[in-house]
Amino acid sequence: MLNPQTADxxxxxxxAATTPVDAEVLSVMLPFFSEQYGxxxxxxxxxxxxxxxLDRARGSIxxxxxxxxxxxxxxxxxxxxxxxxxxxxxxxxxxxxxASHIVTTTxxxxxxxxxxEALEVEGVAVSYVRCDxxxxxxxxxxxxxxxxxxxxxxxxxxxxxxxxxxxIAEIGAVAKARGIPxxxxxxxxxxxxxxxxxxxxxxxxxxxxxxxxxxxxVGVLYIRRKTPIAYxxxxxxxxxxxRGGTENVPLIVGMAxxxxxxxWLRDAYVTRCQGLRDRLxxxxxxxxxxxTLNGPRDPERRLPNxxxxxxxxxxGETILLGLDMEGVAASAGSACTTGNSEPSHVLRAMGLSDExxxxxLRFTVxxxxxxxxxxxxxxxxxxxxxxxxxxAGVA
Length: 395
Ligand SMILES: Cc1ncc(COP(=O)(O)O)c(C=O)c1O
Fold this sequence. Notes:
The protein has helices spanning about 25-30, 30-35, 45-65, 80-95, 110-120, 140-145, 170-175, 195-200, 250-285, 315-325, 345-350, 355-360, 370-390, and strands spanning about 10, 70-75, 100-105, 125-130, 150-155, 180-185, 205-210, 220-225, 290-295, 305-310, 330, 360-365. The protein is α/β, with parallel strands linked by helices.
């Protein structure tokens, strides 16, 4: 077997794709694999201990979200949460043969877009609100797309590719006044912006633990009480009958610990990431003066860890391979579309030419990056770009 590259060898700048599990989070999870392994539905002590751990996890996540514990549904991640939010809110209307409509945006993650497309096949009408050239959506445009038969508005809190922070509280206030259920995919924002559901005015909110230093394969859908959602997974009555299947206790316990820590570290995380990200960008600008920023110019409207840039005359994927050979991990779009040579749907929606989309790279910094790594990564990037440009005969 080939030796896998270890994290120690890598300058990891792809935290929007995933984050490492925090060491403290891992230690909280471990006993639930082989010591406290009971099934939370069992009535003996081992099972009830697992049940108590689930209850504690639910309570701690509810505290961070500012909601009731019974409004938290554990899922396998944000893909499931987003699918349930859309399908669960729309299927009942379809079953009743009532006209139904969703408002969403052109820059959502595929977990929302593909669910919306699947509903379109079933006869649901979908309005895709466009963003501006920086990836920002306007609350007025979202509300202008609403119709009498709108059953759901779904707008992401922050975009995974360019970090654009959307006006969720503004949309939430109007949606509430008009009585329209409102979902937000808060996956990328969870460590940066407080996901307090009442401040945001949302009825449904999706999270995925591995984006905030928790484990992969576990997430949350917050569902405000009395939201008319139809649950999709039938089974043994777990999650109060809302989602059948034995609960993944270790991952859920880890997710709760990770979210609490992310909430507690929030201000320090924002300051640290912004400093690192700005350092990386200024070093890149010094070394590659024609590199340009994709996404919001206003730092208040862009996630503090996100740097998405275009480098004229190169293919992002070629540069990524060169960076990888030097131990730098970054992304040419969202991780889910890597390997797909279609230009990113988000950059395209912002009006970028196909050529500029293909010349784009995303760097997302995290808690453990250092200033030295920023300088080294910028240097490696500049060398890679100049090598690729000279091979391609670009000055
Ligand atoms: C904004 C957003 N939503 C949803 C998802 C899906 O999360 P998961 O793959 O953990 O289900 C991602 C993952 O990249 C994301 O960035």
